[in-house]
Amino acid sequence: MIRQLPGTTVKANVQSADEAKALLGNIFMAGGAVLSQVTALTGLEPYMIQNWVQRRFLAPPVRKQYSIDQFCRIATINALRGVLQIEKITAIISYVNGMLDDDSDNILPDSLFYIYFVASVSADAPDADECAQRAVRDFKEPFEGAKERLVTSLSAMVNAYRAAEMLRAVDSTVDRILGKRP
User: Fold this and answer.
1) Residue at 164 is within a domain
2) How many domains does the chain have?
3) What is the predicted pLDDT for the residue at 2?
4) Which pLDDT tens digit goes with each residue over 13-34?
5) Which domain holds residue 113?
């Protein structure tokens, strides 16, 4: 099934972490992306991304280029912001990767965290914990308890993402009732 990659404008048939990784690899084949490319890929306004950098939710771009990890952090925040306050989203990310503007304390790169997120929301299981467990079954812990932190965060993210999808479905139905859309 073709659906939107979470937090992006990219439509793709992504069923696994490997497919998400390949897609992101193709998008970032040439290296980084400038702000206009990131905004086109996420649907966000430039000022929002710049505000997130200013608020230290992600590191600033290097030579005006956003890395794949920065892009994945932006996409993750964007995917969840419809149902969670940004402070809660960043708390979930920090639970796994520590200080948001410092990659040296990360359990895993943001791109892999995002790939696990995509795999979790694509998993065919009703329970968010089970979706997260399936997505990270091959994850090698850098220290004891890291996998549990990752699963806990992903489970929260899956539930939030599903809630956002439900809200969009409700809005669409109500719009149809009100005659705003066919």
Assistant:
1) yes
2) 1
3) 54
4) 777 778 888 888 888 988 899 9
5) 3-177
pTM for the model: 0.91
Other C-beta atoms lying within 10 Å of the C-beta of residue 34: 13
Surface-to-core class of residue 46, CB atoms within 10 Å of its CB (0-12 exposed, 13-18 middle, 19+ buried) = exposed
Is 156 inside a domain boundary? yes
Residue 125 pLDDT > 90, yes or no? Answer: no
Taking only the tens place, the pLDDT of each residue in 38-70 is 999 999 999 999 999 999 999 999 999 999 999
- The long-range contacts involving 14-23, CB below 8 angstroms and separated by at least 24 positions, are 14/118, 14/122, 15/122, 16/119, 16/122, 17/115, 17/116, 17/118, 17/119, 17/135, 20/114, 20/115, 20/118, 20/119, 20/122, 21/111, 21/115
pLDDT tens for 141-172 read 999 999 999 999 999 999 999 999 899 899 98
Residue from 122, 158, 166, 120 nearest 139 by CA: 120
CA distances from 181 to 2, 43, 137, 160, 175 (A): 22, 21, 42, 26, 6
User: What is d(CA 154, CA 79) in angstroms, rounded to the nearest whole number?
Assistant: 13
Contact 59, 70 (CB under 8 A): yes
On whether residue 182 sits in a domain, the answer given is no
Q: Is residue 141 part of a domain?
A: yes
